[in-house]
Amino acid sequence: MNDAQPGVQRLTAADIDTVGALARTVWQATYPPLISQVQIDAMLADRYAPERIREQLDDPHHAWWVARQNHVLVGFAHALRDETGCKLDKLYVHPANQRQGIGAALLRAIENWAQQQQMCHLWLQVNRGNAQAIRAYEKYGFHIIASRVFDIGDGFVMDDHVMEKLL
Predict the structure, then answer these.
(1) Domain count of the chain?
(2) What is the DSSP letter of 151?
(3) pLDDT for 4-38, tens place per residue?
(4) How far from 155 is each of 30, 34, 38, 42, 48, CA to CA, in Å?
């Protein structure tokens, strides 16, 4: 592997804190125009709590990947499966490393895993205002199948498109 190319591998416990820090960097660059800082902080604390990620690493219904470039963790993805299909739950790349094939490499890992799990489609939720992410997902074959407001508790909502891709 050329060090300039993204290397994708499964997340290990040693990288959990780095993933949390990268999530904060990406979210602070992406979400302030879309949701409040209070909601950003609450969602980061919930979704990237180290103990929660550790539990998911041991759960066969969840799969995490990280991408490294020049030995630095620059992206990550998380997927989960249930009886309805496979959800791409997280796919984030450091802003300085976007548009370099890292997101595509992470997405391929998720698609391969979903197919190994006998899933026939992959779905995700994306903030309706996140035009850059929507365009990227469309580029990779996803299409919007619904738009919904999801109540996530504590007075917070996610105003999202639901997108799907057949595998």
Answers:
(1) 1
(2) E
(3) 456 899 999 999 999 999 999 999 999 999 999 99
(4) 21, 16, 11, 11, 20
Q: Is residue 50 part of a domain?
A: yes
Backbone angles phi, psi at 82, to 5 degrees: -145, -165
Identify the burial level of 78 via C-beta atoms within 10 angstroms of its C-beta, where 0-12 means exposed, 13-18 middle and 19 or more buried: buried
Say if residues 38 and 79 touch (Cβ distance below 8 Å). Answer: no
The whole-angstrom distance between residue 149's C-alpha and the CA centroid of its chain comes to 19
Pairwise CA distance, residues 160 & 158, whole Å? 6
160/149 Cα distance (integer angstroms): 6
Q: What is the CATH number of the domain that holds 67?
A: 3.40.630.30
The boundaries of the domain holding residue 78 are: 7-166
Is 1 part of a structural domain of the chain?
A: no
**Which residues neighbour 59 within 8 Å (Cβ) at sequence distance 6 or greater?**
none
